[in-house]
Amino acid sequence: MIFFWAFVVGGLxxxxxxxxxxxxxxxxxxxxxILVVAGAILxxxxxxxxxxxxxxxxxxxxxxxFGNSLVHGAMQEAEKHGxxxxxxxxxxxxxxxxxxxxxFGMIGALIFKPKG
Length: 116
Description:
Blueprint: H1 2-22, H2 28-44, H3 48-55, H4 57-60, H5 64-81, H6 83-111
Helix pairs in contact: 2-5, 5-6
């Protein structure tokens, strides 16, 4: 049943993004920003962790999870180190994913020729 709920929740997040594109005519940058901020707000309110527990990968794979990770890391480090922890916590939790994206993007750029 976990696969079903992961599919439904992940699909709903994607549908929300698609509605932002099609109905509200938002740019990809605006849509991305709104979804990241929505994930951050949900985590700040304590609602994103129960969503992850319920939907698993359906809540951790979409871009809303990045906002969740930023706030979650900042809040954890703030408890340990105060205001400095807010800044360092965001980078500590998300640095591996961002680094991987940069490295794999560079490898892809070196291997493949753009069609532009």
